Every structure is written in structure tokens, then in C-alpha cells.
Amino acid sequence: MGATGLKIERVWTTEGVHPYDEVAWERRDVVMTNWRDGSINFEQRGVEFPESWSINAANIVTTKYFRGAVGTPEREWSLKQLIDRVVKTYRKAGEDYGYFTNPGDAEVFEQELTYMLLHQVFSFNSPVWFNVGTPSPQQVSACFILAVDDSMDSILDWYKEEGLIFKGGSGSGVNLSRIRSSKELLSSGGTASGPVSFMRGADASAGTIKSGGATRRAAKMVILDVDHPDIEEFVVTKAREEDKIRALRDAGFDMDLGGSDIVSVQYQNANNSVRVTDQFMRAVEENGPFDLRGRLDGAVIESVDASKLFRTIAQAAWECADPGLQYDDTINDWHTSPETGRITASNPCSEYLHLDNSSCNLASLNLMKFLRADGSFEVEKFVKSVEFVITAMDISICFADFPTEKIGETTRAYRQLGIGYANLGALLMASGLPYDSDGGRALAGAITSLMTGTAYRRSAELAGVVGAYDGYARNAEPHKRVMRKHATASDDIKASSPVATAISREATKQWQLGLKIGEKSGWRNAQASVLAPTGTIGLMMDCDTTGVEPDLALVKFKKLVGGGSMQIVNQTVPRALRSLGYPEEQVEAIVEHIADHGHVVDAPGLKPEHYSVFDCAMGERSIAPMGHVRMMAAVQPFISGAISKTVNMPESATVEDVEKIYFEGWKLGLKALAIYRDNCKVGQPLSAAKPAKSSVSVETPAAAVEKVVEKVVEYRPVRKRLPKKRPSETVSFSVGGAEGYLTASSYPDDGLGEVFLKMSKQGSTLAGVMDAFSVAISIGLQYGVPLETYVAKFTNMRFEPAGMTDDPDIRMAASVMDYIFRRLALDFLPYERRAELGIFTAKERAAQIRAEAEAEAAFDHTQMASSAPIEAKVVEEKAAEDKAEKTEPSTTAKTTSDGPVQIAAPSPRVGSSTELLEAVIGKAADAPLCFTCGTKMRPAGSCYVCEGCGSTSGCS
């Protein structure tokens, strides 16, 4: 490296061999259907991808990132075209702006980036794939921070700028604390509206753009300082709207997410956060007063009880997950550019924290690509990879376009970058380390420190080649101070394993080298790293886990070539078991157990002390909320920005638990923290598997002592009525000589919704009882009672008439009730549910008998032959019959030591890993349905991502 440019060395590639020539390519057809109704959302045939890329990754890249109209010659059809479009643009810009010593270095840079993208070592954020190398404005940033002043012009500018950002598929955040409160006067003498009133207009605008846009829902963050006089109104805003949702839902309105009546509810398009200070948190700790100050002159408007206000914040978060907290003094203590201005806001997911009217482009490394088979970490390759990625990210700012000139000016002057990673949870599990453990936190902290230390060291080198960022001169001393804080924190890592020790040692070296170079040259970037949700790009890289998150669950959905999907045990599990020293036979047995049960508890041969290695975000053994907070605290000192993550809490958590989490977040030095309590929101669709609860008491132990009665929240089911015109079928039957008719009506989108029974003349007692029974069952079905619940209760019920029937599938019935619900089960339940209840058609029973006979014959012939082929044949026969009966077939396969177990696909209602997890644990997950394809999304940081089509609810 010299003043004339960077000298680039090869790491991943071989001289004279292009990366494309080292992989096997194949052509695929990408046909995306809505799993609920089978309609085709997208179709492009003959696309080209490496054989190693999963079907899901290829589908998402094809639908999301290929440019050009489908069906035209301009449409991209190969991953080579996509990578070339982006990488060649970066190379040309790097040459144009003097980053490389000579064309040879530029060539190596291009090939190294190509290799890393091709092999899923890292990925740029989505806007890069959308825009770079196209005729459209080349916006590369996913995260934006806006500014609003106390004037109508500024407020209207905020609406406009936010709309432009949403239109481009990105998200923004804003702090409204400069707007005077509703307790202050206007210059005309009237009373000001206050920031909460202006939030309504912005929320309506975001909702309109969300509804009309084709990319994703609007993502936004609204922040208010804790000393603002309107803070209490702001805090309870969304909680009060949740009360409205409940009332309207109980009155029969459609309040599902995306429902026709949900638009009447306000403030639903933003995440809300309170910006708290150390002064406020100390007042909470000491049960002291806290002053709320006017925006015009800083005068005290009101003095409040700090503990009571903190309780109000926790209560609102307990009720509806908003607001989160942002710790203002901690944020600004790590600010590299305080001479320019304070950090007042963040992007929607809270990972980007910097100057007002600025933006950040993101890129994330796939940590599993650096884990060797022996469990060691490829430190040198990781360092070099960070160098390549951070260089490319900085180059992008040179040619990037921005939604507003103010954002463009600030971003070009401070060059904020957000390198991060994905697959941390998978890396820890594969290494045999529990997510919630000192060893897991030490390894995570060391990797994070190495990443940011290397990024800033390369940034200092870039400053020596193409100059420090424009705002560096006035912020040199505070920037150096923050670099020293990072380096000191790195020295304090308590590595407990040889792998973490080696990484930590290299991290210390990178920080010291960066400080030495930076002292002379300055730094090219005011910010280097964040931990983003990595939603869509995590799927693109075939990552098992997103960002800093643990695994969602041990089983997940996998798409198959030619369509369909199957349930598998995560591939990280067998690798983790081998790293823990289990022999191959035990690995197979444990993986089979997980396939059957969805968890490791009581797995054959698995030591109880190893259970925690397989703890996940949800399921039988879920990580405790404080475990998530401690992991965030372990990596926060090594991140320029913050961490996109929501701390999930069980439904049984109390308001005091929320207070403790928020208070510990401050004590542990986090910059931002948000919680989510299971089932606290009602304005979103939940699985029918959600257990009904008549009421949940909010009363806490402390409240009980004081004999204070807290509010009781009642959860009521909503009746889904059948349309006036609905499909139905009538079956005549005879049970023990008694004849009758069964009429069953369905919803248009499938599912039993109404039953009528006729067994005697009108006016008789039996006819009246049957009519009443029919109405009761029908209303129960319409309120969400699963049909299988009725089947389990009424089958095998014995009373006269009973005996022979005229139904070939049900030859004997213990009663009329027994027959009716067996018939309904055969007509409306999938095979897997009926098999659990022991209800089969005549063909299915015949297939079972044949299979048993063949199994006995095969055993007699070989004495040692496996019954697996016979079982597979049974499954094939059953699948063929199910297909004829319009039910979805299941997929099974024998466990092997080379890969994960494949187990029976669940019922047709399952369409994502989240829904699969719901089926396994028997509990609904509070995740929205994807606006694009209708499947249930899964958490990704503080956002959600759709595994089916890659859509996200966030900004990365």
C-alpha cells in the first residue's frame, strides 16, 4: 500500500482461474406460488445458479434482485450477470477514485469480491442488489436518519422525505423532541399541537405508501426524549391503540394485520422508542423526581416521579412491545463526531445511530464460512475478507445517489458504513457452545472486536490513500478517544477457549495497528460496523441464523427442487454433536429424536449438560430473556452503531420483568433495547393453534401486597362467519338402522365452518336436539375451535342407535355422534391429523395390512433386512391415495450420517419455519403474514423476514 493506491493480495482466488470456472452451474425454474391458494406470484424459467445454492436462495435472488422486465431479453437470468453488474461497477469506481495502485490490483479486487459473493461468504444489503449498475438512481444505503425542527415547513419536509425513502424500499428514523409540546404556547398565543399529533399524519402517509408499494411495508422509527413534556402521552400511544383494536375486534370488525378495518388504528407503521439519559435512570434508581423541560427555553414545565414514569414505559411495553429504550448518554459517549452534532435518532431497527440527515449502507459476513471442520476459526481469511468488504462499501459512497441532498451531503462527508455478520447462533452451536454462556459470549465478543478493529484499521489505511472523511479534522480527538475505548474493551475480553483466545489476540493487534495508522492518517469512515437483522440477505447466503440471533428452532422448512418443501433438522445440529464428541450412531439417534419431538430433551445418549448447546429462541428449551441481553452486552463495545435485536419474553412475564430488562440494559452498557412479550399484540393474525385463554391477570406480587387491583386483560376469540353463498355437501347415512342426513358447509378458502344434522320429523324432540347441537357445533367452528378437538371428544361415544353403517369407510359406529365426527374427520382433516386419531379410509387400512404382510415376508426372507423400504412404500401408497383425495402428501427419508433427517411434512396450513415451529410446540408465534406471498414470517433481529419470498418488515 502506498499513497498511490491499495495493493491487493489474493486470498480466496487462484491466479489465472476465474471464480465462475471453479463451480458447477445448473439451470432451474423459479415458480413462486401463494401456498394458501396455489396462485402463481412469479415465474422465470431457466435461471442459472451454482449447484451448491439452495432452492430458497435462488428463488429469492431471482425474484428480488434480478433486474429487467420478466419475459424480455433485458431480464437478468444468471447469478453471473447479477454479480458482474455490481462488482464491475465497484471496480470501475475504485479505479476512477484512485483506490488501487494499478489495474492488476483492481482485477484481483474484482475477482476476490466475485468469489466471496458467489460462495456466500458475505452479501451487500438489498439496495445494492436493487440499484447498482442499473439506469435507476444508484442508492446503496438501507438505513436513514432524518431531522425535524419546530416549524411547519420542517414537519412537512419530514413527511415528504420519509415518503421518498419508503418508496425506495428503505426505512428511516426521526427524533421529534425539537417540536414544542402541547403544554407550550405558539407565537400566535394558541397552544401547540405537540409531536404526537404530527405522528398521526406521518403514520397515515406511511400506511398509504405501504399499501401502494410493491417492495415492502414501510419501516420507520419515532423517538422522543424522556424529558419532553409530552412523554407520557407518547409512551401510552400505541398501548391505547391496542385497546381500540381489542374493542373493535370484539365488536366484529376485521382487525387482522392487513384487514379491512385495521386502517382505523393509528401509529401502527412505526417502532416507538424513548431516549433516556443517565440522569433519568439514576433518578429511577433513587426513586427521585425528574424534570420535564420546554422545548423553546428549556424551562421546567413539570416535575414527575421518575420511577412512576419508568413504570409507565414498562407497562406500555408489556402491553404492546412499544416503546423500546435508547440510552442517550451511552450512545453519545461512543460518538466519533460529537463536534458536528449529537446523535439523536436511529434507523427503524435501531442498529444505525449517527448524525441527523445521514445514511448507512450495510454488508454482512457469513461466519460459518470461516469455521473449519476441526472447530478452529480462519482468522487470517476473516481479516482479509473484512478488508475487501469495507473497501468495497467505502467505494460505493463515491458513486451512490441519495433520496435528499441533505442526506447526500452528510453521508459523503462522514462516510458511515455498517459491516456486520450473520450466523453467529449457528457458529456457537456448531462449536458446542451454548448461546447463553460465558464461553459463547467470549467467542462472540472476540469475533465482533476483530471485525470492527480490522474495519477501522483498513479505514485508516484508506485515509492514507484517498483521504480521511471530510468531518474528521474537527472531530479528530473524539474519534481517537472512541478508538481507544474500543481497544481497551477488546483487551478486557476473557477468552475461555483456544479459539476465542486466538481471535482475541488478533483483534488486539488490529486495534493497536489501526490506532497507529489513524494517528498519522486519520480515518476514512466516521462509523464502520453495526449488527443488522440480515433478513433477506441472510436467506441469500443460506444462513441458519440471522445477525446476532440464536437459532429460531432445531427444525425448519426446506424448499425442494420442482416445488414443495420438507421438514428437516437443522444441519448445524449434527455438526455440533460431532464437535461435542458423540459417535456417529448416537448422532443419528439424537437427530431422529429431534425430528420426532422438535427438541433435545430426553434424546437417547445426549448428556443433560449438553442440552443448553441446543437452546433456541423458541420451543421446549428457549433462551431466557436475560441471556439475550447478556449476549448484546458482550458484543456492544465492539460495534460502532448498535444491535438490531428484540428480547423475547414469555407471555407470563410481568411488568417488573420488563423494568428489570430495561434497567439491566442501561447497566450493561447497551445503546438500544426493545422487548416483545408473547401474545401481547392482537392486531395481527395468529395461528389457530393458539391456546385460548379466558383472562390473563396483570397482578404482580408487589401489587398484591398493596392490595392494588391491576387491569385484567381478556382475550376473546373472533367469529369468522361464512359468506351468504358457500360450498357444501350432504351425506346420507344409516347407523344401526337409524337414517339421517349430514350437511357440511365450508369456507371458500377451505375449512369446515357449519354442520346441519337431520334425523327425524320437524317438531320432534330428536329433531330439536339435533338442530340445537348443530348450531352449537357450527358456532364453535366459526369461533376457531379446531375440528380435531370435536373429533377427539365425540368419537367412540357409545349410545343407541349403534352398529353397522352403510358407509364403506366406516363399517361400524358406536353411536350416531361417533359416525358423524368420523365422517367429518375423513372429509376435512389431513392424513397426519387423522392418523393421530386412528381414523382411516378403507383404502388406507388396506394399504397398512399389505405393508404389514410384506414386512413379515421380507423379514422371513432376510432375517436382518431393514423395514425402511417397506415403510417408504406405505408412505408412497398413502401419499398417492391422499393426492387422489386432495390432501397434501408427506415426505419421509431415512436418516444418514451425511445430512439432516427429513421427516413428515405437516398439514397444508404450514408454509414456513415459524408455522412448523407452531405445529411442533403447539403454540402460536406472534409473527405477521408476508404481504407478498401470505406465509408467516420469522423474526430477524427486530424485524421479520419471509422465508418464502425474502420480503422483510425492516430496512436491510
From TrEMBL:
Residues 875-888 have a biased composition (Basic and acidic residues). It is an enzyme of class 1 (oxidoreductase). Pfam families: Ribonuc_red_2_N, Ribonuc_red_lgC, TSCPD. The keyword Ion transport does not apply. Residues 30-120 form the Ribonucleotide reductase class II vitamin B12-dependent N-terminal domain. Catalyzes the reduction of ribonucleotides to deoxyribonucleotides. May function to provide a pool of deoxyribonucleotide precursors for DNA repair during oxygen limitation and/or for immediate growth after restoration of oxygen. Belongs to the ribonucleoside diphosphate reductase class-2 family. This is Vitamin B12-dependent ribonucleotide reductase. It comes from Asanoa iriomotensis. The lineage of its organism: Bacteria, Bacillati, Actinomycetota, Actinomycetes, Micromonosporales.
